[in-house]
């Protein structure tokens, strides 16, 4: 017979995993659809985002705003992120370490050639007052390449 405390801990872990996975999904939807409120909603106010040597590190919501509005969105005319291989390891009831791989295809500003980025996101997430958000994200880029002669275009009718 399962003890009720054990059942509650297991249920909390399942609900927490779902909420943490939504952070990865909302990152992609927020960034690619240029929905800044959705994107900002995944980060704690005191967050840190280490994007890497190509772009740098950004702190707090003001840093996220700068990274997205002043650096990244102006650099991309179009993007499509795909996340996979989500691994969540809890470090207590209210903290977890998360890894996911990301592939991003898109168009750099002013380009018609496909650009492909592969990376891993290593996150420290925290639950505060019942809500899970990212406290720190470190991006490890594996490649950032254009594919000359490969154009991205919308399908024609």
From TrEMBL:
SUPFAM superfamilies: NTF2-like. InterPro entries: NTF2-like_dom_sf, SnoaL-like. Pfam families: SnoaL_4. Gene3D superfamilies: 3.10.450.50. It comes from the Bacteria. This is Putative hexachlorocyclohexane dehydrochlorinase 1. It comes from Luminiphilus syltensis NOR5-1B. Residues 13-138 form the SnoaL-like domain. Transmembrane segments: none annotated.
